[in-house]
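Archive entry. Fields below.
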Amino acid sequence: MIIQLEKKVSDQQKQHILDVVKSIHYKATEVSTQFGKYLVCIGKQDFDIRLIGSLTGVRDVHRVSDSYKLVSRKWKVNYSSIDLGDGVIIGGDELSVMAGPCSIENEDQVQKIVTHLKENNIRIMRGGVFKPRSSPYAFRGLGIDGLKMFSSICRENGIKIITEVMQVSQIREMHDYVDVFQVGARNSQNFNLLDSLGEIDKPVLIKRGMSGTIDELLQSAEYIFSAGNEKLMLCERGIRTFETAYRNTFDINAIQVLKDKTHLPVIADPSHGVGIRDYVSKIALASAVAGADGVIYEVHEVPEEAASDGQQTLNFEESKFLCKQLEALKKLVL
Ligand code: PEP
Ligand code: MN
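PREDICTED_STRUCTURE:
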């Protein structure tokens, strides 16, 4: 059960609500976010919901049978959207495009990609400075200095930044230079990181774990929301299966399932989802048809020379064509 509290609920009123919750043998967790105050109550006993609904200080009360609560659509049927400022909105009637290299490499690379994004009306640039790599000897990113450079070029050009945070200690130093924190597939169940991202007021995109179920992704999102941050979006980026013909199995079903189960925006990552450059654009288009609120893909001036993931990275020509197709598709599916 989710109890939405009135914004101006007094401590005394709240204590009374908590006492009533306790009397029906439910365990309450208090949640306070940018947008509201909630009591998430877990219990089994049947009771008359009017017992709670009639209490002073209660704005609304909802029964939510899912294992995740605040991210469920069972209490919030209308979809959420996230405002990044300057007219950049994710969710709602938008089909957002986020594009950029796998890794931020140098100023020249960022500048060229920013120019490409502006030419194609893309408002959000991706790019990792802390890179989770399978081999410790692979390029692991430029770190915080790279982020500062990335951010300063993007800010000058009105482009928002999404970049991956790998550990709790990085949040503070990255904070002022980031518009959306990305939680990578490998950290999808790093609960300490999720808790800490719940304590900040910056949007978070959380990716599905490589072997994570949809339910696990939603529960991970619940960590962030319940720690206080509602500015959340989910990302399908493919899962590891027995198939070896491509990097990951992009789970197109997940998009529709997520749109049904959660009010959070759903973003598709076809680059990591399929892992082969020739297939990326079609999977991106398929995701939009399947109901994604946006796509995030990798682009580089010369993918063959990219420091990481060149094999799944579009060049400018391919990216431009994809943007045109997405634009055309938007009119059909939105
Ligand atoms: C990335 O987006 O660069 C990345 C590492 O993705 P994932 O976490 O999905 O592997
Ligand atoms: Mn990558």
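CURATOR_NOTE: The pocket of manganese (II) ion (ligand 2) is lined by residues 102, 272, 298, 308-309 (CB under 6 Å).
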